[in-house]
Amino acid sequence: MDGALMTVEGLSVSYGDFRALHDISMRFDRGSIVSIIGSNGAGKSTLLNAVMGINRKLSGRVVFDGADITSMRTSAIVAKGVTMSPEGSSVFEDMSVHENLLMGAYLTNSRDKRARMTERAYGLFPALREKSGQLATFLSGGQRQMLAIARALMSDPKLLICDELSLGLAPVVVNDIYDRILDVNEEGVTIVLVEQEVKRSLEFSDYSYVLVKGRVVIEGRSDELSEDEVKDAYFGINKYA
Ligand SMILES: Nc1ncnc2c1ncn2[C@@H]1O[C@H](COP(=O)(O)OP(=O)(O)OP(=O)(O)O)[C@@H](O)[C@H]1O
Ligand SMILES: [Mg+2]
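Above: the input record for the complex with adenosine-5'-triphosphate. Below: its predicted structure, written as tokens.
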């Protein structure tokens, strides 16, 4: 087996007559951090939802860890080792921080494992431990985002997908969360970062894909891509428009 933990092959998705994704192919190598960069409406969430089995694929395949997961249910995909922290730091508002974490481990029957994963989450984000008994609705924006990520990690994934984790947060808070993502990656978890912000995405990732109107228009090693070229594509002010 090669270095790919997951591949997306020729994926297309439509909403009625509107084609949101056109023949997308991507590769996510084991242990790497891959960013998917695109502006509002580029199709980022559509892609992630297709990978997670949340919306229907028109055509194409998703292969994870050697298995074709294209038509699997979301719970089966999570059980295989893929998880997503959704856009908008969405958490269960009327549950405590601790209960939110346990929701992320709903597929785990072992009490020991749940305890281990909870400890890992609190170790990663000590602010959450302090608030463990409080309702999630009282968390700050940054803490909410931490909780969304921590909850996703409770399923002990091999691949963690973060949909726009920096949205609406102060840069200093985002930096802190990104550093924790690096810690998770150090533990061997492959990371997919979906972002609108070009500079940070290139800095934090090994490989990047730029999505414009449902198509991959640029891809390459993040240290070899030029920020200006990516921004031109991203803002649609050149040949990709
Ligand atoms: N449920 C839906 N029904 C119809 N069209 C949709 C639906 N969801 C998304 N779209 C359309 O598909 C395209 C891609 O949307 P998507 O949400 O995947 O983009 P995105 O890159 O995640 O954007 P954002 O940065 O705003 O989250 C957009 O044109 C959007 O209007
Ligand atoms: Mg989105």
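Notes for the reader.
The beta strands are 4-15, 18-29, 33-37, 59-64, 67-68, 82-85, 159-163, 190-195, 207-212, 215-221.
The chain has one domain: 4-235.
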